[in-house]
Design brief:
Elements lengths: L2 E5 L3 H9 L1 H5 L10 H7 L11 E10 L4 E10 H7 L3 E9 L3 H17 L4 E4 L1 E2 L5 E2 L1 E4 L15 H8 L3 E12 L5 H13 L3 E4 L5 H15 L11 H11 L8 E6 L2 E10 L2 H7 L7 H8 L5 E9 L8 H15 L4 E8 L3 H10 L2 E12 L3
Parallel strand pairs: 4-5, 13-14
Antiparallel strand pairs: 1-2, 2-3, 3-4, 5-15, 6-7, 8-15, 9-14, 9-15, 10-11, 11-12, 12-13
């Protein structure tokens, strides 16, 4: 069979790109369909601020029978490349049927694209940056993904191995059974409360924009030394936050301050994937009704982000964030939560999670391949 690679140029072709995963996962009970309306906005350069400083090209693989059988996004993140003084291309939103001709044609084209752009390395999957969905699932295929985490068939890693991609980094997800707050954490909180070096509160939805400004300030400082991290512009951060506002629950999201200055935060979200699986990508005509009826019944949560500014890391703010989140879980009878993602070699973050009782249950991999120029 002959396959052709086509660059996405029209709105109709973008629709084909967005809907292509249904061909791969139509028989999967674990995959969670994305919201089509959200994906349309995400890939719209006039809506998503990410496109202002980056280049993104989308490609489809078309079969002789005119079926879409593969897709990929190729990205030049100019902010990343300038920060790290590199010439890297990223790939993301990669999907393909189990056919090596299809995947081979996608990555042959990707190599040509990189060379034309004077790039010497291809890294991914990252959709569209490390501030979005990252990694290829390589372990933990027995359960559905939580909100914001990708899922893929096991054969995807075989494809990248066959194409001589190498591991760049692994991102791990932890599962934490909520039983009782560990004694060491209770004792730590007793000491921290007596010292009164910082304050802690839930975020205020009625002042959401102001709260996001505070969190953005902490975020870019707390993550600055992490592998591959690129600071988000305030516009990008607010765009991402606006997507969460509809289902965020303030009692699970905290901001810590020292002398009125934002110092730390944590964001824990309900796993709305439980509902999205039943909507099948469509909000209308009945999707919103299902969402509103079921959103308060969600019993799984994902700790999406927890960070403390570098200059405040010795005050115990991180321990207080763990304690408050765990305490709310107990109060609301939450059985377990997902903590993701954490770089496998980020011991300062991983060790406290393991000490709390978390166990690694999923692993996503970011691959890299140097290109001959």
């Amino acid at each position: 069979m002959v396959f052709s690679v086509k660059k996405v140029k029209t709105p109709a072709e973008k629709q084909l790109f967005i809907r292509m995963p249904w061909k791969v996962y139509d028989k999967s009970s674990l995959w969670v369909p994305p919201l089509i309306s959200e994906r349309i906005k995400f890939l719209n350069p006039e809506v998503n601020p990410f496109f202002k400083k980056c280049e993104v090209d989308l490609f489809l693989v078309i079969s002789e029978s005119k079926e879409v059988v593969g897709r990929i996004a190729l990205i030049i993140n100019h902010v990343h490349n300038k920060k790290f003084s590199v010439k890297i291309g990223f790939f993301g939103m990669f999907e393909t049927i189990d056919n090596r001709e299809v995947s081979g044609s996608l990555f042959n084209m990707s190599t040509v694209w990189c060379r034309e752009k004077n790039l010497n390395k291809l890294v991914g999957p990252i959709s569209l940056s490390t501030n979005h969905e990252c990694g290829l699932l390589v372990a933990g295929f027995d359960s559905s993904p939580v909100i914001g985490m990708p899922y893929n068939p096991p054969y995807y890693s075989d494809i990248l191995d066959d194409l001589k991609f190498n591991k760049a980094k692994d991102l791990v997800s932890l599962k934490l059974e909520i039983t009782q707050i560990p004694q060491y954490l209770e004792l730590a909180m007793s000491r921290l409360n007596s010292r009164q070096r910082f304050t802690m509160r839930s975020i205020r939805l009625n002042r959401f924009d102001e709260e996001i400004d505070l969190i953005w300030d902490i975020y870019n400082d707390a993550w600055v030394d992490n592998w591959g991290f690129v600071p988000m512009s305030k516009e990008e951060f607010k765009y991402a936050a606006s997507e969460m506002k509809r289902f965020i629950q303030p009692e699970y999201c905290f901001i810590s301050e020292v002398g009125g200055e934002p110092a730390g935060f944590s964001i824990t979200l309900p796993d709305i994937n439980e509902i999205l699986k039943t909507i099948n990508g469509r909000i209308f005509p009945f999707g919103w009704a299902k969402f509103l009826l079921n959103k308060n019944n969600i019993k799984v949560y994902r700790v999406v982000a927890l960070g403390v500014k570098k200059k405040y890391r010795r005050l115990g703010i991180d321990a207080a964030l763990y304690y408050e989140t765990y305490n709310r879980f107990l109060k609301n009878k939450i059985k377990w939560c997902d903590i993701s993602w954490v770089l496998e070699d980020n011991k300062s973050m991983l060790s406290p999670m393991l000490r709390l009782g978390g166990t690694i249950y999923k692993r996503h991999r970011i691959y890299e391949k140097y290109l001959l120029t």
